[in-house]
Amino acid sequence: MRSFKIILFGFFFISLSSLAYGQCSFIPDGELTANFLSIPALAAFVIVATSFVRNLSWLKKINPQYVSWGMSILLALIGWFLQIGIFVQLEWYYIFIYGLASGLIANGLYDWEVIKAVLSILELKTGEEK
Fold first, then answer.
1. What average pLDDT does the segment 86-90 reach?
2. What do you get for the CA distance between the two ends of the chain, in Å?
3. Which of 15, 43, 61, 95 could form a disulfide with 102, with the two C-beta atoms 3.0–4.6 Å apart?
């Protein structure tokens, strides 16, 4: 029964991440790179990845928000290293900007509209451009 609840919980978070894809203008079907097309999609992927990584025994002692922020910067690093989504042809320090932005959205501290306004003031791309 416990494994059924874990599987059901995992499917819930995966389906929850698909709601953030509505914020993107173009999404290829069935590709993992779709998680890196915009900051809201990356934030949804951070939530899913954090829920799976959180089951490691040595991470259970750490505050879940810290794990989520670390996961958001780690996923931004992976996106920049692989040059996918919004990380194509960016400087290395954008990893921290976009990672922090997706972490703030994933933890519920800020809304996407606030982050988008800040990024547009700084003239950074938000993932909504075509």
1. 84
2. 46
3. 43
